Amino acid sequence: MKVKDEQKYDRLIAAAIDLLAAGGLANFSTTKVAKQAGIPQSNVYIYFKNKQSLLEAVFQATVHTESVAVAAAIDDNAELAEQLAMSIRALYDFALAQPAVVTALQVLTEDVALKQKFALKADDTANQKIQHLLTTGVTQNILQPVDLNLLRYFLTRPIFHYAEGRRHGLYSATTTSIDELVVMVMGAVLQPTPFQTWLQAQSE
Amino acid sequence: MKVKDEQKYDRLIAAAIDLLAAGGLANFSTTKVAKQAGIPQSNVYIYFKNKQSLLEAVFQATVHTESVAVAAAIDDNAELAEQLAMSIRALYDFALAQPAVVTALQVLTEDVALKQKFALKADDTANQKIQHLLTTGVTQNILQPVDLNLLRYFLTRPIFHYAEGRRHGLYSATTTSIDELVVMVMGAVLQPTPFQTWLQAQSE
Amino acid sequence: MKVKDEQKYDRLIAAAIDLLAAGGLANFSTTKVAKQAGIPQSNVYIYFKNKQSLLEAVFQATVHTESVAVAAAIDDNAELAEQLAMSIRALYDFALAQPAVVTALQVLTEDVALKQKFALKADDTANQKIQHLLTTGVTQNILQPVDLNLLRYFLTRPIFHYAEGRRHGLYSATTTSIDELVVMVMGAVLQPTPFQTWLQAQSE
Amino acid sequence: MKVKDEQKYDRLIAAAIDLLAAGGLANFSTTKVAKQAGIPQSNVYIYFKNKQSLLEAVFQATVHTESVAVAAAIDDNAELAEQLAMSIRALYDFALAQPAVVTALQVLTEDVALKQKFALKADDTANQKIQHLLTTGVTQNILQPVDLNLLRYFLTRPIFHYAEGRRHGLYSATTTSIDELVVMVMGAVLQPTPFQTWLQAQSE
DNA sequence: GATGAATGAGGTTTCATTCAT
DNA sequence: CATGAATGAAACCTCATTCAT
What PANTHER family does the record point to (chains A, B, C, D) (predicted)? Predict the structure, then answer.
């Protein structure tokens, strides 16, 4: 089942991302993916076992792309809180640069029927780095002592939402800036005292 | 579109909610809705112009139910910050009590293809009450001075996410309590100083 | 089954004519007729036994309207050939004045499934007058000695076709005038010698 | 849309022609076509993009068949007027030999909703030949100086009408012969003088 | 491995007609 | 008589998946 022509494989993934971003899961079909990729319909089943399997691959690909973009933007030498702020801004930039990837990822993550069906690849180093950042933050009493999934939720979903809102004109830089969003997210994930500290560091 | 037999209308809405909650938009069909409601499929078109129109009705119904539940739980005499905290808890209770309604609402709100296609009914008084709360909060420099949509996002989505996580075992009361979630959300939406004030009021 | 509210009856007929003219039999339905007439769907079955019966009534109505218009325009004192020419021009004027009626009639007459299912009302005096004209013409060796139906075909269909062509820009007055069409039709229905005579009378 | 199994394609076209001839556009459906062709309904969409596209293919096929039959019967060495007379008789013979093809073509040509939606294939040589005949006739002052579409109308529709009338008993050889029809059509399309000339040539 | 063909199920919508009120 | 509701059939079209070449 694996990959003779890697170029076609990639084209299928890319087409699937575009399709998901444009119409959501409800309008997603192997037929459309193949057409968009310029590949015969039945070829989808050479590269993927079935529709579900294709979606899983899309999930892995988008998570990975996003993690890499975010991890790359983090300065390891900065304060932990500052590293988080950086990750938020990086995610925002990424969401503006690659809206389809982000939207596709959101579609897949949000879907009721697929929820938690997808297992994250354990060996994604970029992903691990971010995970490590959170663990450390909790241990050092900088971050709220809650489940990492919840922290991650606050650090991603609102940013996706805001980025999409900006792209579609729901938000504008004047009514709601990215700086304000960063403050809000930091206010949620940081413990009160580190939050104050971080705020003062910002205003200097 | 005048409806005599309101009972069937209601059954269709209820069936649609259940279906959306169970399978998302991708697995939603008028055929299934009708079957679930125990009604011939073509009857759906007596009560609704088309599929889209049915979804719109579901949207209105779920928004309304949720707004009512939340608005009812708010004590008008409490401090504004405290009213917000109440609304968060009310929303959480509602999400646990009526998970299907909340999930259906989320499915409809989150969908790429439908996004912002649905117009909120302007005359929903429960909804207006919450909107008013936010406006006042911003004017009085208690809430972050951002677009009301973004405030509302923070005040709903994370709660839905957490409630669903609790229901599915992703979160448990010991690793992450609702109290902690309330603090996080308040940290996001309140301005730093009112946040501090509110925190102290909590610990007393 | 017959007609309490004659106004609604007429509205249904008129709506049916418009519908047939706009979309042909393939897009004709009792649902659409009722909607166009602003009348509840099920009311169609008060005024007409069924769809077929409604179409039959439309047929009678359109044939009658057309016959009256044509018959009224014929000068009984003119030469027989000239009377025919008048009828051609009258039909053309009528087709331009009431395109929907003419098109609906054509749709009904041309349809394979209905063909010759409709019996012409025998008591239509306007219709009888034209029929009489043709009989006389054949008897007097002015018209070609063929079946009256065929004469009538030549005296109507090409005119409908031309009128519609004019309305839709297929023909224009400069490339093909109504005068030329009259000559062609007269050339078809008149016997050669009367045709020559008629032609000379024209040029004087 | 490349077709391997041309046999099924042809069967679909043939089934469509029969269906159109039997019931007109109003009773035409892909379901029925498929059933008549002995093929699953969804297979229609392997060979044709949609219903409209199937009808277009039927149109091309019938026009082509008819043009070929007519063109083949024309003796290039005969007088132009005589060639036209030949084409009329050829069309009549064709209409008797292949009534379904002719009726289907008429149904498609006459329909209000489809009118002028179908583009004639420019590369149909048989069709071109007839068109050339008409152009020449007009240039040489043999045919009436009108739009070619109108000439073509007179040279086809009445013949179809007559042939169908014969088949259904509306006309019989004794009341109205094909010879008489030829004279009528020639009287319509020829200019008066060539018409006289042609008539005399006939009686010799 | 690649591809066009095949297929049966399912989806949305419209319809003609009937019925109860 | 008028009308909204009801219904089952049928229409068009798309899909996921399999198969033969």
Answer: HTH-TYPE TRANSCRIPTIONAL REGULATOR BETI, HTH-TYPE TRANSCRIPTIONAL REGULATOR RUTR
Tell me the shortest Cα–Cα distance from C45 to chain D, in angstroms. 21
Q: Do C101 and C156 meet the contact criterion of CB atoms below 8 Å apart? A: no
Q: What is the pLDDT of residues B35-93, one digit of tens each?
A: 999 999 999 999 999 999 999 999 999 999 998 999 899 998 999 999 999 999 999 99
Question: Strand E closer than 7 Å to the CB of C40?
Answer: no
d(CA D16, CA D67): 19
Q: D109 in a domain, yes or no?
A: yes
pLDDT for position D5 = 55
In a domain, C168, yes or no: yes
Measured between alpha carbons, how far is A116 from A120 in angstroms, rounded to an integer?
9
| C40 interfacial to chain D (CB closer than 8 Å) | no
The residues, any chain, with a CB within 8 Å of residue D170's CB and separated by 6 or more, are C116, C147, C149, D164
Round and report the angstrom distance from CA (C46) to C1' (E19): 14
What letter does residue B143 receive in the DSSP assignment?
B
Q: Which residues contact A168 (CB under 8 A, 6 or more apart)?
A: B115, B116
pLDDT score for C120: 67
CB contact under 8 A, C147 and D110: no
pLDDT in tens, A10-41: 999 999 999 999 999 999 999 999 999 999 99
CATH number of the domain enclosing D142? 1.10.357.10
> At which residue do the structure tokens 């790429």 appear?
B112
Nucleotide nearest to A42 (CA to C1'): E3
Asked if residue C44 belongs to a domain, the reply is no
Question: How many structural domains compose chain C?
Answer: 1
Give B-chain residues touching A27 at CB under 8 angstroms: 113
- CA–CA dist C151, C143 (Å, integer): 8
Domain-located, residue B138: yes
Write out the residue range of the structural domain in which residue D164 sits: 62-203
Smallest CA-to-CA distance from A157 within B129, B158, B170 is with B158
In eight-state DSSP terms, residue D124 is: -
A174-196 confidence digits (pLDDT tens) = 999 999 999 999 999 999 999 99
Residue C161 tokens, joined: 């076709």
Position of tokens 């012969």? D177
Q: Which of A170-174, C112-116, D122-126 has the highest mean pLDDT?
A: A170-174
> Token pair for residue A20?
């998901």
